[in-house]
Amino acid sequence: MNPVNVGLLGLGTVGGGTVNVLLRNAAEINRRAGRGIHVSHAAARHLDAPRICPTDGMRLTDDPFAVVRDPDVDIVVELIGGYEPARELVLEAIAHGKHVVTANKALIALHGNEIFAAAQAQGVVVAFEAAVAGGIPIIKALREGLAANQVQWVAGIINGTGNFILTEMRDKGRDFADVLAEAQELGYAEADPTFDVEGIDAAHKLTILASIAFGIPLQFDSAYTEGITHVTRDDVAYAEELGYRIKHLGIARRNDQGIELRVHPTLIPERRLIANVDGVMNAVLVMGDAVGPTLYYGAGAGAEPTASAVVADLIEVTRVLTSDPENRVPHLAFQPDALADLAILPIDAVSSAYYLRLLAKDKPGTLADVSRILADRGISMEAILQKEPAAGATDVPVIILTQRVREGEVDSAITAIEALDSISAPVTRIRVEPLDAH
Q: d(Cα 309, Cα 33) in Å, to the nearest integer?
């Protein structure tokens, strides 16, 4: 049987890694797919740039639309990233009846509903395993391996840059800005790190995971997103003292009111496996009603880890090239006409426990005032930690852990606490999640 011809859009780190994996493991891939998979066409911005892969036998061009429209191309692999022209290229490929593989989480999170509808109408597949958590096969696990379950919640460390920063702050007592600068030097963070440190990248990925887990349309604009720039090394140390680790988590949870979809710094009990995922590694914890908790861990980025997911998608698409479209695994796990348009809850309707850090004047009655404000709103304290003031300072750091309560009540309490004359600075609030089997 003739090999499948692949048109590659982008010959950078992931594109080069994809070519190398296809070449190195060609015999094994052929055994799995039933036929060869060959990169016959590739588009790159600079044709004479150095490559990490050989380009022999490829038709190279700087026009990605020429690849998409070429009748000899069976599958288009989009590795350009961003929103445009990636969206236009993918829709053009679908219009030409070509299957698509993409690693573009931003594209799927924002435009996936449109793209999947177009693919459904044309009877083609859009595969996107590499869009979430690099080489970890979390999309296939949710779509297929856990298909018997009602997924109750998903929680993930799905941005390696943020995880590296928080790990360094904990292990070495470093400040956020210092570690961010190193992450940029090491290539973990972009020159503009906003997508990573403000949680936008993680929110793209969480949007995709939530859609597959709960059978809902992609709704990135409804995701609550909070970054880690306000987390200090003191917060990291106090959390450790209380038996917790701070991680930048994406959390999607289904409850009776709707779906929680939120990215923010989170205190996790240090005994949890996911709390011990360090450096640039990723991990996703899924709670299913039948299977219980399952954890998926691995490299969230890099040439060959991401290429592993791209090539796995190429094998899957090759297997289904001749199959009846009605018998394929749906893009978002559930049949397209069975997606439930459940409400995404606003953050003030979400319940969590909370870490509150106050800077209080060292005088009688301050803690009593704070306790009264919390009690008036039905907020119970789980633990309280009062630190010694710094040398020459009159303000005392006070750390309070609350029991689970609705966020709106905490917002009200923080406003009242900050209005006290005895409180010297804005209150720091970090959510606390037990991530247990309940």
A: 15
